[in-house]
Amino acid sequence: MIRLLLAGAILFAWTSASAEPVEIKIGYLRGTQPKTSISLVDIPAENNGIAGAQLAISDNNTTGKFLNQRFSLEEVQLKEKDDVAEAASALAGRGVSLIIADLPAAALLKAADAPGSRDLLFFNVGAIDDRLREEDCRANVIHTAPTRSMLADALAQYLVWKQWRRWFLVSGSHAEDKLYADALRRAAKRFGARIVQEKVFEDTGGARRTDSGVVQIQRQLPVFTQGAPAYDVLVAADESEVFAAYLPYRTWDPRPVAGSAGLIPTSWDASHDQWGAVQMQERFMKLFSRPMSARDMQAWSAARMIGESASRTRSNDVKAMLNFLKGPDFALAAFKGQRLTLRDWNLQLRQPILLTDGRTVVSVSPQEGFQHQFSELDTLGLDRPESKCRLK
Amino acid sequence: MWRGSLLGTVFFMLLGTQASGFTAYVSNEKSNTISVIDTEKFQVVKTIKVGQRPRGIELTRDGKFILVAVGDDDTIQMIDTATYEIVATLPSGPDPELFTQDPTGKILYVANEDANTVTIIDMEKRVPLGEVQVGVEPEGMGISPDGKILVNTSETTNMAHFIDTQTRQIVANVLVDSRPRFAEFKHDGSELWVSSEVGGTVSVIDPVKREVTKKVAFDIAGLRKEAIQPVGINITKDGKTGFVALGPANRVAVISGATHEVQKYLLVGQRVWHLAFTPDEKYLLTTNGVSNDVSVIDVASLKVIKTIQVGELPWGIAISQR
């Protein structure tokens, strides 16, 4: 069940022989990732996410050799029936106090609330649920994954900037699709777009891919999108990968698609090349022979935050590290054109959101003109005054 | 008519002899060119085609060659300043961005971002002499006036690495704020200034103690903190005034060399990146990446007096000594 992975330890030829290096042990707790996707190219790699953490560990160790600190990563791959709370406790028992969690929301909360988890610090790199930063926020969970509302707001700002204000919203029938649709509705209202038509695409089951499926899709999708009132853009909420990728070029009216297909808001894309990102893409490709995904970036950010806090505080003390990350001196350089910092009220990483068409980065939000009294990055997602989070 | 043109010629010759103009060379990252600027007329007089993605640019100490790092071609090109022909390439290692020469001009030190190394090149033989392992994404390069200490900054490691140029060993590592981009010694060697693009500060380092003695922060009314991204630094020869390019803040900060207080912000073009003085320090030229131009600052009056259109995404700048 448990696969051990000690990346980094190998990299360690030249720490000064004078003193034993300070150990910073990081756990990587991952659930099973769904393999369903409409497009073959979107099927996540086996090491999706953890690869980013591994790259960051090697970055941290390059820095660590100058500061006599050593970072290691231990991977725990959960199977369906494994108890996530037990897995977290087991990691703690082995001296791991920092855990990168690539888990669904419910499992993450279970791990964070487990007895003995109080002194651990979790980094949520997988769950975009707003509730984890709101009513279900935890003082021992930092979030590097953006929220649904951050993603929706980033998209809405651009669509409004583009003057595509009339939206046709199509959402899936699964719970997370509905949450994404909620976030998009909120974003529309917030930034001055109007949803002129809504429709639900029912998941009736069945395989994503069949040898002759394309023939049917070509006939179904135009009919499904027929009869809408005048609109500028079709916005799709389909996290379950049931229909959105089929929409572009198949809508009844010739309109662009955004949301879960077409123009997609994301924390990272393999085509992102601004602000030194090329270096990051190349380092990643060299190590793993595949493009870097958003999940990889979220895990990289988490492990780099650990590296930053360890080098700035010169310690492996979790409390000191968390205080540093929450404080004014923390700034993560993550190839997004500006510093990333932490929202101290709910421990969410502030970040620009890329809007990609899968080939290039079309734009980066926040868009010009969306002002904020503290940080323009706080125009994305739920802001401090509306937050339901009370950290204890 | 004949007399007129003769008169004109004489006049022109007179002007020529009186001219104390210098030549500025601006690397245009996107156009793959160098804009040659006459600093008397403040006009582009020539555009040189170079390799892909030109960024770091300097003149050799003897003024005979322009050196330009063309990152996507993994080399540094040498351009003859008399003919503007590319005459040689240097074995810079992969993806060179910034580099510096030792005071004699015989050795070139190049930061290789992709390889976490600094490559050392013999300028006469044009061969690599070795390399030094540094932090992740090495970028800024500065050398002490006596040539004994080379400083390299690494962007992801967030350190200024002090390298002994004799032994080629790292002798100290100084932690600075996020994404350090540029390192500049005062001409008397008494201070080292390092800019942190993401951290938004300039660290003043004591080169003897190898400690940060002061952090310069910037506060511009009406601008959010994230937009202030310090990059290029130039300090006057007397050490009294430092100029720091603040990237997307579209301003150059003027800093007292004595107290390290910010005295003034000068509004220049968009995404100001690097700076260079004319040798008489009358003017400071800035490259403005997003507005595709160069701003000219009058150093005595601290006023922006002119804007010159250059190629796309101007990045680095070097000015001839005569």
Give me a quick take on this structure:
The complex is a heterodimer of chains A (392) and B (322). Chain A is an alpha/beta fold and 392 residues long.
Total strand count of chain A, please? 14
What is the element string of chain B, with H for helices and E for strands?
HEEEEEEEEEEEEEEEEEEEEEEEEEEEE
**Number of distinct helices of chain A:** 9
By CATH, the superfamily of the largest domain in chain A comes out as: Response regulator
Oligomer state equals heterodimer
Arrangement of strands in the largest sheet of chain B: 3-2-1-28
Uncertain segments of chain A = 1-17
Secondary-structure content class of chain B: mainly beta
| Shape estimate of chain A | globular
Approximate helicity band of chain A: 25-40%
Distance between the termini of chain B: 36 Å
Percent range of helical residues of chain B: under 10%
Largest sheet of chain A: 5 strands, parallel
Rg of chain B over CA atoms, rounded to whole Å, is 19 Å
Average pLDDT for all residues of chain A: 91
Low-confidence stretches of chain B: 6-19
Number of domains of chain A: 2
The helix count of chain B comes to 1
Note the main sheet of chain B: 4 strands, antiparallel
Shape, per Cα inertia axes of chain B: globular
Task: Explain what you see.
The complex is a heterodimer of chains A (392) and B (322). Chain A contains 9 helices and 14 strands. In chain A, the strands form 4 sheets. Chain A has a 5-stranded parallel β-sheet, sandwiched between helices. Chain A has 2 domains: 9-146 and 269-351, Rossmann fold (3-Layer(aba) Sandwich), CATH 3.40.50.2300; 149-266, Response regulator (Rossmann fold), CATH 3.40.50. In chain A, 51% of the residues are buried. The longest helix of chain A is centred in the last third of the chain and has 20 residues, at 294-313. Chain A is globular, with a radius of gyration of 21 Å. In chain A, α1 (50-67) links the parallel β1 (22-30) and β2. Chain A starts with 21 loop residues before the first strand and ends in a 27-residue tail after the last strand. The model of chain A is unreliable at 1-17 (pLDDT under 50). Chain A has helices at 50-67, 84-93, 105-113, 148-161, 175-191, 213-224, 277-288, 294-313, 318-326, and strands at 22-30, 69-77, 98-102, 121-124, 141-143, 166-172, 194-201, 233-237, 257-259, 264-266, 342-343, 348-349, 353-356, 361-365. In chain A, 31% of the residues lie in helices and 18% in strands. With 392 residues, chain A is an alpha/beta fold. With 322 residues, chain B is mainly beta. Chain B contains 1 helix and 28 strands. Chain B has one helix at residues 2-18; strands at 23-28, 33-38, 43-49, 54-59, 65-70, 75-80, 86-90, 96-101, 107-112, 117-122, 127-133, 138-143, 149-154, 159-164, 169-175, 180-185, 192-196, 201-206, 211-217, 233-235, 241-245, 251-256, 262-267, 272-277, 283-288, 293-298, 303-309, 314-319. In chain B, the strands form 7 sheets. Chain B has a 4-stranded antiparallel β-sheet with strand order 3-2-1-28, with no helix packed on it. A 4-stranded antiparallel β-sheet of chain B has the order 4-5-6-7, with no helix packed on it. In chain B, β4 (54-59) and β5 form a beta hairpin. Residues 6-19 of chain B have low confidence and may be disordered. Chain A binds chain B through residues 59, 62-63, 66-67, 276, 279, 282-283, 304, 308, 311-312, 331-333, 337-339, 372, 375-377, and chain B through 95, 113-114, 116, 135-137, 155-159, 161, 170, 173, 175, 177-179, 197-200, 224-227, 229, 248.
